[in-house]
Amino acid sequence: AFFRVDRPWAEQYLLPLFSWNNPIEAKAAWEGFLWSPRLYQPLLTAFKSQFLDSANHYFELGEHRQQFATFLTYVALGPTEGYSLEEFRAAISALPQEGLEKSAQALFQALEGAADQREDYWKNRVQLFWQQIWPKSRDLATRRIAESLTRLVIAARGEFPAALAAVKDWLQPIEHPFSAVRRLHESGLCSQYPTDALSLLNAIIVDQTWGPRELGQCLEQIVQVAPNLAQEAHYQRLHEYARRHG
Hints:
By secondary structure, this protein is mainly α. The chain is built from 16 helices and no strands.
């Protein structure tokens, strides 16, 4: 707000406080900003170096650190002028595991928030982020990231096959698949893209103690439009699992 009202004053007296050269002042300044951050291009340009450097001080941000990871992800999704893909890639890669988990969650939320523009948002924003900015080491994969990516794939709707192909290597069994399977069932994607839906279910469900109620319904939708998939080992395994946990 100060930056909008009096930019010269803010640049002289406020922006220097965001520099990590003085960690105590920087922590206070960033916590204040992250209380209610705004995607305001002139400010993003003005404190670019301090902002990107904050990824190297993630835990120093205290209780606002996850908000930073979310905000960084939204800025990287753009469009944001004056930042390069390499700079965003370096900042995202500097995040610790917790920060990456929050970033993956922000990706899913951003895509879902695009409503009826989801397919375009995937193609023009999220896919570019995933291909050019997200770290490539799969050693960083966790169940929490896998859960967010599962929701991301389902939220892509018409781009479901492309989204699944992009993130598939990062998927793994998730601890609580109930919400994801319910979303998949309600989306109608099992009937639209039966092979891909079966592949997703196979990736996220292994031997969880409690089975999702809608799993059997998803499998039924899949074989209704693609009866040949009933002979697949993945389908038979999941069908048996659903029968035992139904």
